[in-house]
C-alpha cells in the first residue's frame, strides 16, 4: 500500500486539543488490519523507531510492548480517544508485534464505531 | 547472584537488606538474559524489557547526538535538549493516559512518577529534568562532586494533593500515615556525582528477584546513563538496597526457581571460562 496520506488535507480532529499524529487521507475507521500494519510501519519509520528485533511468529515485525502502546496512542490521537483500549483487558502478547497491535486497534475501532452508531 | 542466596532464606525464600551492585550499567551477560526471558515467556510473564521500561522507556529515546557540555554553543546544545523534551513529551502526552489503564499502573508508572509527579497525569513535577538541570549547573560551576540529589518515587511522607513544597527529597513516613503500601516497590533513587561520575542508589521495599529484579536493574542502568549523557558526566555504579528481597518461591515454585538460578549460574560460568 502506498503512503496515500502524505500531504493530503486531513479531516478535522474530533477533539481539537489532542495532538495531531500523521493523518491518513481517509478515515482510519475504514482501514483493514493489513492497512493498519502498513500505517504503523510508516509511523514507526517517521518517528525514527523502525522495528529492529526481527519477525514475530505472526509474520509481522516484532516490537517491544511499549512501542505497541505508542502505536495504539497514535490511533487514539487520530480518533480523539486517548484510551482507545483498556490495557488491563488486552492480551499482552498482542503488543509484541505490529500485526498484533493492528488486530487490537481494528477491534477497538469497530467496537467504538458500533457504540457510536448505537447512541 | 542474589537469587542463589535468597532461595535459602527464611519465610519462603526471603531475606532482608539484600544489596546488589552494578559496576558497569547497561552491560549484560546475554546467556543470563536469554535464560530469564525464556523462563518468563514460558510462564506468560512480562519479559525483561517490559519491566525495565517501566523505569526508563529506552525504546522511546533517541541515540545521543553528543554529550552535553558547558562549553557547547546554544546551537550545539539544542539537539541535546530536544532529545529529553521529546522523550518526556512522548511519554506524558502520548502514552500516560493509556498506560495507566494497565493493571499495576493505576497509580502511574515508575517513570511517570519521576517525570510528572505524582505520576497519573501531565503537568506534574519533572524530577529527572530538575536533576539534569542541577547537574548541568554543577558542571558550569566546575564542580565534579555533588551529592544532594534524590528522586522520590513513593512520596510516602507527602500529603495528597501535594502542598507548598511537594518534592522534599526526604523519604520518611509521615507520623499520621496509616496506609499499607502495595506500590511502588521502588521507593527512592539517590544520585551522587563523585569525581565526575554519576552514581545511583535505589531503595526497594520489596524486590521480586525472579520476575522483576533483572528488569529493574536494567531500567535503572538506562536511567543513570540517560541522566549522565544529558548532563555531560560518566555513568558510575548502581547500588540496589532491597529492604526485603523475595525469591518468589511460593508463587513460582522452589524447583523452578532453582532451575532458573542454575541456568543463570551456568551462563555466568561459561563467560568466566571463555575469558
Describe what you observe in this structure.
The complex is a heterodimer of chains A (119) and B (275). Chain A is an all-alpha fold and 119 residues long. Chain A has one domain (29-118). In chain A, 42% of the residues lie in helices and 0% in strands. Chain A contains three helices and no strands. Chain A has helices at 33-46, 65-79, 98-118. The longest helix of chain A is centred in the last third of the chain and has 21 residues, at 98-118. Residues 1-20 of chain A have low confidence and may be disordered. Chain B has 275 residues and is an alpha/beta fold. In chain B, 44% of the residues lie in helices and 17% in strands. Chain B contains ten helices and six strands. Chain B has helices at 2-7, 10-13, 30-42, 48-55, 74-99, 110-115, 127-140, 213-231, 249-252, 254-273; strands spanning 14-22, 146-152, 186-194, 197-204, 207-208, 234-246. In chain B, strands 1, 2, 3, 4, 5 and 6 form a six-stranded mixed beta sheet that branches. The model of chain B is unreliable at 161-181 (pLDDT under 50). The interface between A and B is medium-sized, with 22 and 19 residues.
Major beta sheet summary of chain A: none
Give the helices and strands of chain A as they follow along the chain: HHH
* Distinct helical segment count of chain A: 3
Count of separate DSSP helical elements of chain B = 10
Distance between the ends of chain A: 34 Å
- How much of the sequence lies in strands of chain B comes to 15-25%
Give the C-alpha Rg of chain B. 19 Å
Sheet with the most strands, sense and barrel status of chain B: 6 strands, mixed
Mean pLDDT of chain A: 84
Based on secondary structure, the structural category of chain B is alpha/beta
In N-to-C order, the SSE pattern of chain B is HHEHHHHHEEEEHEHH
Distance between the termini of chain B: 19 Å
How many beta-strand runs of chain B? 6
Average pLDDT over all residues of chain B: 85
